[in-house]
């Protein structure tokens, strides 16, 4: 991943005075639907019109896209609205058809990114192209696998590259469809600041009422743009209905989202400060979620102790935990005083949870 400054050129060439916005329906359903949404977005901050032509579905029998016919509809979008077009590709045949129909931006989906074989096949098919190619993170939180896909494309002499952060699958239930794991995107951004980074709040949230907040967090973390699914009648969408917003909602969202950049001499300071504060907010939210998980485990321990009539406080176990955490804290630059205060508070909350269980 050397000479990454070349990778931002395509984004700079757009000369936008706002973050890049890629928007359109999850799936192209009918020509009328595709063109209708496009005409509502043509005079907005949307630069690329997206539509899924081939849909990788979790289970067979679900709607898997209209296929190559939808590419002709995207051609009409470009002719009638001037919007550039974008779609997902998952194999060589998809690539060849997309290039034949002059699609401007192609992205590799999360399920494809997990397979170096698939990525290499796509890279070979795209070798030397001047089209923009974006790589979604793999479904699992593996930064090396994500970057490996980008490297395969770069090795194929594809200059206009970028990545899409769409969150990661997790066994644990949470408020997100795909856990954002912001720290991975932050680490990628830190290592390769000139690699364009786009956020996909639709797939992270899975719920339209959360899209704005996740989009704002992404912009606070200096993401370069957003990919948002929009549909004229979201509830009737043939795929991912719950995470799509109407064009009207999207347009208002683009107005309301705050780009925290100042035009005074303090601009760089303010931008950096806001970015760091956004990172702290992300970590704080993760701490709260982890504490919630810890207390659920404490509840289960309380249940076991109730069955065996065991005392809540186990001093030997507590002292072992405290000693280990003090050592871990030192290795992470945390004072013994802080560790003791924090874990005593956590221990007390854990005792409270267990006593509630034991006392019914």
UniProtKB/TrEMBL annotation:
Transferase as UniProt keyword: yes
GO biological process, one term: chorismate metabolic process
Keywords (A to Z) from UniProt: Transferase
EC number of this enzyme: 5.4.99.5
Top-level taxon in the UniProt lineage: Bacteria
Gene Ontology MF annotations: chorismate mutase activity; transferase activity
Name listed for the protein in its UniProt record: chorismate mutase
Species this chain originates from: Gelidibacter algens
Upper lineage: Bacteria, Pseudomonadati, Bacteroidota, Flavobacteriia, Flavobacteriales
């Amino acid at each position: 991943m050397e000479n990454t400054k070349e990778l931002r050129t395509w984004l700079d060439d757009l000369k936008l005075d706002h973050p890049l916005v890629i928007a359109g329906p999850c799936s192209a359903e009918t020509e009328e639907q595709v063109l209708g949404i496009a005409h509502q977005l043509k005079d907005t901050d949307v630069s690329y019109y997206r539509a899924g032509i081939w849909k990788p579905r979790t289970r067979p029998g679900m709607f898997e896209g209209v296929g190559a016919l939808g590419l002709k509809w995207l051609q009409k979008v470009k002719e009638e609205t001037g919007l550039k077009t974008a779609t997902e590709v998952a194999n060589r045949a998809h690539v060849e058809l997309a290039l034949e129909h002059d699609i401007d931006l192609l992205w590799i989906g999360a399920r494809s990114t997990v397979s170096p074989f698939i990525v290499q096949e796509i890279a070979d098919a795209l070798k030397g192209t001047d089209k923009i190619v974006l790589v979604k993170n793999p479904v699992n939180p593996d930064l090396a696998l994500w970057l490996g896909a980008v490297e395969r494309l770069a090795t194929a002499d594809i200059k206009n590259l970028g990545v899409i952060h769409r969150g990661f699958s997790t066994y644990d239930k949470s408020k997100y469809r795909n856990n954002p794991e912001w720290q991975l995107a932050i680490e990628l951004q830190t290592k390769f600041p000139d690699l364009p980074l786009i956020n996909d709040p639709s797939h992270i949230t899975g719920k339209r009422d959360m899209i704005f907040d996740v989009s704002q967090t992404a912009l606070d973390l200096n993401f370069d743009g957003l990919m948002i699914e929009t549909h004229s009648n979201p509830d009737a969408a043939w795929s991912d209905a719950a995470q799509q917003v109407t064009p009207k909602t999207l347009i208002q969202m683009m107005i309301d989202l705050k780009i925290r950049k100042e035009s005074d001499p303090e601009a760089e300071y303010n931008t950096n400060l806001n970015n760091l504060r956004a990172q702290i907010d992300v970590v704080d939210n993760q701490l709260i979620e982890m504490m919630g998980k810890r207390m659920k485990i404490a509840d289960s321990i309380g249940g076991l102790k109730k069955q065996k009539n065991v005392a809540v406080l186990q001093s030997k176990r507590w002292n072992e935990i405290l000693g280990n955490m003090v050592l871990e804290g030192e290795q992470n630059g945390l004072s013994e005083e802080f560790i003791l205060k924090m874990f005593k508070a956590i221990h007390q909350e854990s005792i409270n949870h267990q006593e509630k269980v034991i006392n019914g």
